[in-house]
Amino acid sequence: MSAKDIELTGVKEIARRANVSIGTVDRVIHDRKGVSQNTKDKVNAIIKELDYQPNILARRLASKKQVVFAVLIPKISEETNYWEAPLLGIDQAGAEISPYGITLQKYLYDVNDKNSFLEQIKRIDLSLIQGVLLAPSFIEESEHFVKKLEIRKIPYVFINSDIQGHDSLSYFGPDLYQSGYLSAHLMKYLLKKQDEILVVNISQEIDNQHHLLRKEQGFRNYFADKKLENTILKIDIKQTDYTYISNSLEKVLKNHNIAAIFVTNSRVSTVAKYLAMTGDQRRILIGFDYTEENLSFLKKGDIDFLICQKPREQGYKGLMALYQFVVHSKSGEKNNFMPIDIITSENCDFYLN
Amino acid sequence: MSAKDIELTGVKEIARRANVSIGTVDRVIHDRKGVSQNTKDKVNAIIKELDYQPNILARRLASKKQVVFAVLIPKISEETNYWEAPLLGIDQAGAEISPYGITLQKYLYDVNDKNSFLEQIKRIDLSLIQGVLLAPSFIEESEHFVKKLEIRKIPYVFINSDIQGHDSLSYFGPDLYQSGYLSAHLMKYLLKKQDEILVVNISQEIDNQHHLLRKEQGFRNYFADKKLENTILKIDIKQTDYTYISNSLEKVLKNHNIAAIFVTNSRVSTVAKYLAMTGDQRRILIGFDYTEENLSFLKKGDIDFLICQKPREQGYKGLMALYQFVVHSKSGEKNNFMPIDIITSENCDFYLN
DNA sequence: CTGAAAGCGCTTACAG
DNA sequence: CTGAAAGCGCTTACAG
Question: Of the ranges A92-106, A263-277, B270-284, which one carries the lowest mean pLDDT score?
Fold first, then answer.
């Protein structure tokens, strides 16, 4: 065996076998133009034969290429720190992939203000961006935006809520229907046959109603599927200040004998507050999200169960999916529904969202 | 500004500023001998001033060093596929860090056979190993083994269960007491004041009893803490075949009016099978672990709740902790308790363990 | 105790 | 259409 026969690694070995330079091998690997079909075939055959896997470390080291992702999600509001968690996940993923030349640009909008959403979109310079991670809180406006992305062939990933019928790379978020269904399942354990139930939707934004209605639907369908005969009442509360909410609650609770309450979003803390203040502890209360406010009521026993959907993980996995696709051309599942976690006063300290 | 003043990056810039060669900089960074205190101080000062962060990609590319970790966990048995999950997590972590030169050696033992544990330990050549990830199922034997590791200064991480009083790098696994406590909390919702409860421990191995007793203790203490007055009965079943178990169950259930059953491990499926066969569906049943068997009973409604502790994540995070410590000298928390997940027939399909 | 050189497996101009 | 060379930020012998 002469020295020439020694097995090299990677592009060098491919080049040696194909009798071309490593520059040419590189061109073939990246499908760059300027290679004759003949040598292209030859090189590709060898790549296949060797089952060549590029060394990603060397690739990154040698390449000066930078990749920029835009992140478009709500900012943390005074009302709720919910969006802290997705951001945490995004930053974590960002730190992990930054050695590979990925930079993040964050555009945080006010979830209660459609205009701030539009303003943030305006600030994004699409010519500098290789991918977008977004929470499409405002449906129409989001649709308009992603159409522009599609024209420029910029891939994007939805988190937290989905918009159907678009060419998103993927979705990471809850299966809303099923989380309502689960809530009903939990509630069933705690009810007697004749107990009355109250469903409470609290939201200023009509846009978000889709969200809530889907959960309500799941909740109701459970009772229908299981042929349970409990009466289900419902109120929609379209103001989010405490006075308004407590007045609304007072009215229903006075006139009905409600044994359990299901709040379709994180505002469950307001309902808990009302019940706590009126000394009303008999009622079962189930709601959503691992926010500070909710946690304190959970621990005091005013909230029985919280349903959570791994907000941190939505951000983390969403960004990772974008990275995998843009940098490694790998695409995973389109729909990625988060686990539906049940949080109680006894396991909440162990929850890592 | 002359050409000499141009800012370089990394070791080159440090070398330039310190007026030494990059070889010397490398020696200082890795604290290798053969550098005068004087230049060492000079270089270190500059490293600090620049807040130098080594490029880990370049480091790995240049270094031929290989790191080997031994993994010592139970193999999947016919009785339960529980250990499939931790192994999955370990393999996932292994794949992620293999570009950085990490290799795994797996040593799988039979959890029902102490000798197979000892045999696997014998197969490990400690002189070739830079770290160990282990599930210390057999306490005494594990203690003996980790003492040997400590003498050789080989770091190790426990998963699934912990042994106190040793110098492990960290532990990833359940807080057993708290998971029993949570089970009681769930059960409380489903009980009436006068209902009787049955605790069932099923296990051949005395060694595992610590495990189970800790959960039982948490379970009992919940009822004590909350001053609940339900009677709690208990049986220890020391054979794991179905006939034996069903006979044992039959005896208690016949003589008592049991409303709810708490099984302290994954054998809950056997109890479910018995209840299903006898057409006994009124009783609440809570147990542990996301195994195939358990899942099928959960979906059919024979099991009400399963408590799970992210077995995949235990393996994943345990190996990652070892990697962070050995390769990057970073150590995290010593005790890492997994989330205590509540699985029902409605959220089980979304569970990612 | 210190330095100069080669090399890890790629990419990137540049030259032809 | 193709090749030869330089370089990414490190580590590793080797020489002195």
Answer: B270-284
The gap from C-alpha B145 to its chain's centroid, in whole angstroms, comes to 18
pLDDT of residue A66: 87
- Same-domain status, A143 and A201: no
Q: Which residue is nearest to nucleotide D3 (CA to C1')?
A: A21
β-partners of residue B237 are: B202
pLDDT of residue B208: 56
Is the pLDDT assigned to residue A159 strictly greater than 70? Answer: yes
Diameter of chain B measured on Cα atoms:
95
> Mean of the per-residue pLDDT values for chain B?
90
Could you tell me if B84 and B193 lie in one domain? Answer: no
Strand D contact at CB of residue A21, distance < 7 A:
yes
Asked if the structure places residue A345 within a domain, the reply is: no
When divided into structural domains, chain B yields a total of: 3
Whether the predicted pLDDT of B67 surpasses 50: yes
Statement to judge: residues B194 and B293 lie in one domain: yes
DSSP calls for A178-243: HHHHHHHHHHHHH--TT-EEEEEEE-S-HHHHHHHHHHHHHHHHHHHHTT----EEEEEE---SHH
Regarding whether A94 and A22 lie in a shared domain, the answer is no
Is B80 found in the same domain as B110? yes
Same domain for A124 and A141, yes or no, is yes
- CATH code for the domain of B97: 3.40.50.2300
Residue ranges making up the domain that contains A97: 67-173+311-338
Q: What values do phi and psi take at A299, rounded to 5?
A: -65, -35
Looking at residue B34, its pLDDT comes to 83
A165 Cβ within 7 A of any nucleic strand D atom: no
DSSP E strands in chain A: the ranges are 67-74, 102-109, 131-134, 156-159, 170-173, 196-202, 232-237, 258-263, 284-288, 305-308, 335-337, 341-343
The pLDDT tens digits of the residues spanning A283-336 come to 899 999 999 999 999 999 999 999 999 999 999 999 999 999 998 888 899 999
Residue B60 located in a structural domain: no
pLDDT the model gives residue A207: 56
pLDDT given for residue B206 in this prediction: 53
Most B-contacting residue of A190, A290, A347 (CB-CB within 10 A), to test interface: A347
Helix then strand then coil, % of chain A, to nearest 5: 50, 20, 35
- Mean pLDDT over residues A220-247, rounded? 92
Same domain, yes or no: A304 and A319? no
Residue A31 belongs to a domain with what CATH number? 1.10.260.40
A99, A175, A341 member nearest B341 (Cβ):
A341
Same domain, B303 and B181: yes
pLDDT at B4: 41
